[in-house]
Amino acid sequence: MAVRTLLPPLVRLGAIHVQLVAVTGAIHMLMEGAFVAFPALISSTNKAFLLDAWKEYAISDSRYATRDTCIVSLEAVTAFVEGPACMLILYAMAARKPFSNLLQFTVSLGQLYGAAVYFATSYLEGFPHSDPHPIYFWGYFVGMNAIWIVVPFLILWRCWARIVSAEASVQAVAPRRSKRE
Questions:
Q1: Residue 136: its pLDDT value, please?
Q2: If 0-12 CB within 10 Å is exposed, 13-18 middle and 19+ buried, where does residue 104 land?
Q3: Theoretical Cys-Cys bridge with 97: which of 2, 46, 53, 92, CB 3.0 to 4.6 Å?
Q4: Alpha carbon of 37 to those of 40, 69, 106, 180: distances in Å?
Q5: What is the pLDDT, as a whole number, of residue 77?
């Protein structure tokens, strides 16, 4: 309660945003990076959190267990492009770099595209790779992946508003050209 009264709402929102970007980048690089880089990860008999997490998730979507080429490709882009880009976003936000909003917009658009391809390929095939049990389908398959739609959409919307506002400011002070030019 004391923290809420000390921090203005925008600072709290900014802190949450930074935390989301940090967690997103870590998940992309560590979890998804391990899936792409180590093909035998899911079939391993070792007991480790990362291994068990992927094995459990593969129950909800067997494309991970079979290393479906579409899934591996999506995860590779996510792990090796979007993950490091999230770290660059953290730097840009902390250093108040002017490219921060454009980079956030781009990464969020990539995440939305990845989620769309992920769900669309499963839908178009009739969900043959998804476990129909409510916990696995609605909890893991839909619920855990809905995060990659909701959060990027909110960030995309926020960045769009900032980019449009910045462009409007530039246009407001820029000299108007005559129609003859």
A1: 94
A2: buried
A3: 92
A4: 9, 14, 24, 58
A5: 97
CA 124 – CA 70 distance, rounded (Å): 14
96: left (phi > 0), else alpha (psi -120 to 50), else beta? left
Structural tokens at position 2: 């004391």
Tokens encoding 81: 């492009």
* Whole-number pLDDT of residue 41: 74
The residue extents of the domains of the chain are 2-169
Give the whole-angstrom CA distance, residue 145 versus residue 32: 13
The tens digit of pLDDT for each residue in 102-149 reads 999 999 999 999 999 999 999 999 999 999 999 999 999 999 999 999
Q: Which pLDDT belongs to residue 180?
A: 61
Report, in angstroms and rounded to the nearest whole number, the Rg of the chain calculated over CA atoms: 20
pTM of the model: 0.83
Low-confidence ranges of the chain (pLDDT < 50): 1-3, 6-7, 9-10
Do residues 145 and 119 touch, judged by C-beta distance below 8 A? Answer: yes
Residue whose tokens read 């049990």 = 133
Beta strands in the chain (DSSP E): none
Residue 61: strand pairing partners:
130
Phi first, then psi, for residue 57 (nearest 5°) are -65, -35
